[in-house]
Amino acid sequence: GASNQGELGQAGQGFVDQLMFWHGGGAGSVVDGAAENRRLRRNAALGNSPTQGATPTLKGGS
């Protein structure tokens, strides 16, 4: 029902926030999407945790 959708929406948003902000990414730091994709694919290929390694960020964000 509608209540379940609300719960899923909340959980989904929290998951997105975790993906965006895990590893202590400070406000104003912008993730380098291409480099992050390479890092995640490399970890997956090696059987490593997706959280292994630092999230690459672009310098000089807002």
Automatic annotation (TrEMBL):
InterPro entries the record matches: DUF3035
Superkingdom field: Bacteria
Region (Disordered): 41-62
Pfam families in the record: DUF3035
Protein name stated in the entry: DUF3035 domain-containing protein
